[in-house]
Amino acid sequence: MIPNNKGNKLLLFMATLINAGENNMSTIETYKQEIEKELNLALEKLVELKTKIRTLSDTERLDFIKDVESLETMANEMRARVKEINIEMENSWEQIKGDVNSSLITINEGFERLNRSLV
Q1: 69: number of CA atoms within 13 Å, CB side?
Q2: What is the pLDDT of residue 30?
Q3: Cβ-Cβ contacts under 8 Å for 42 (sequence gap 6 or more)
Q4: pLDDT digits (tens, 9 = 90+) for 9-54
Q5: In terms of Cα–Cα distance, which of 58, 57, 46 is closest to 2?
Q6: Which string of DSSP letters, residue by residue, matches 37-80?
Q7: CB 82 within 8 A of CB 36
Q8: For residue 90, what pLDDT is reported?
């Protein structure tokens, strides 16, 4: 029960956000920036809808407020999940970097041992 065009566009926009992972983004960072931009846009549209809803009668307003609050909750939950993913990615990156560095040290130590043995 969201106001006509704007509401339908917002629902379509939220569906697009959910499917954003299918986009052919070139890097993870670009993808994260695009998602953040889309979330900010969604929250701006929610503010616009809330402003329009304030002009409606009390009965109409109650119907629309529930829908807008639901969309706002979804957008906020998505933002929280993106933050969680960023933390998980950072932790994974640190683990991968540590593993690679450890392997490089081991390889270099192996070369040094072999070189000392051959001298």
Answers
A1: 6
A2: 83
A3: 10, 13, 14, 17, 71, 75
A4: 655 665 565 555 444 445 777 888 888 898 899 889 989 988 988 8
A5: 46
A6: HHHHHHHHHHHHHHHHHTTS-HHHHHHHHHHHHHHHHHHHHHHH
A7: yes
A8: 81
